[in-house]
Amino acid sequence: MKAVSADRSPVTPSGPASPAAAGPDRPSLPDLSGRTDVEDLVRGFYRAAFADPLIGPVFTDVAQMDLEAHMPVMCDFWESVLFRAGTYHGNALQPHMALNCSIALEQEHFARWLGIWRATVDSLFLGEKAELAKTQAVRIAGSLLRRLHGGDAREYVTIRRRENG
């Protein structure tokens, strides 16, 4: 099954290219500038993700996520990623590993997550931090997917020469 973004267009793990500047199809939007913007972004993302037919049930039925309890954690995470706030002190891999025991999290789930994340960022923000939010999401999704499937967290793993051969 091919993963699609929130607007139903195909998406790869790296996601479709996003417009970098305002134009006739993209009005001038503010850039992310702090915790309040992060909260708006995270809430907007989860609103769309919970409604999505592929990943919505993962959040609502499998993980049984309490969004209000989860919001401060996710805002700490993204505030730390985007603004180096140092407010997140968790382990992002652990809950995904636990969830992966209940439902196999596959490339299509991460591709959909990325599509929704990018669409949410693009609908609310434009600028350097907005682009960073999308770039970091690609890196984080790729790292989580690789780790869940037994690979290295890094995108590029050193290829070593085989001994005696």
Can you describe this structure in just a few lines?
55% of the residues lie in helices and 0% in strands. It has 165 residues and is mainly alpha-helical.
Summary keywords:
disordered N terminus; 165 residues; mainly alpha
Q: What's the total helix number?
A: 6
The share of residues in extended strands comes to: under 5%
How far from one another are the termini? Answer: 40 Å
* Elements, N to C (H/E): HHHHHH
User: For this entry, what is the oligomeric state of its chains?
Assistant: single chain
Q: Main beta sheet, described?
A: none
Describe the protein in words:
The protein is mainly alpha-helical. The protein has helices at 35-51, 56-62, 67-83, 93-102, 107-124, 128-148. Helix 1 (35-51) crosses helix 3 (67-83). The protein is globular and about 50 Å long. It starts with 34 loop residues before the first helix and ends in a 17-residue tail after the last helix. Mean pLDDT is 83; it is low at 1-19 and 157-161.
Architecture blueprint of SSEs:
Blueprint: H1 35-51, H2 56-62, H3 67-83, H4 93-102, H5 107-124, H6 128-148
Helix pairs in contact: 1-2, 1-3, 1-5, 5-6
